[in-house]
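Worked example

This section walks through a single chain of length 73. The input is the sequence exactly as stored; nothing has been trimmed or padded.
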Amino acid sequence: MTQPSHQQIATYLTDYAISELVRYVIEDTGCTLEQAMEMVYNSSLMPALQDEENELYIQSPAYLYEMMNAATT
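Given that input, the structure is written out below as tokens.
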């Protein structure tokens, strides 16, 4: 069995963080899935999260959610 590459791990963790961010938005705002996805994908956090060099994907989704909220206030 081969070990996953750094890229595969980063992609998995980024995808997981995004799904959790969407879930948090829905829980906090009561908006629809589509609205929550739009909020997350259009947030100022998204480019930084998708940039592997930042390694934000290793942070907890709760921490990332706080960062996302802090950027919008």
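What to look for: The chain is about 70% helix and 0% strand.
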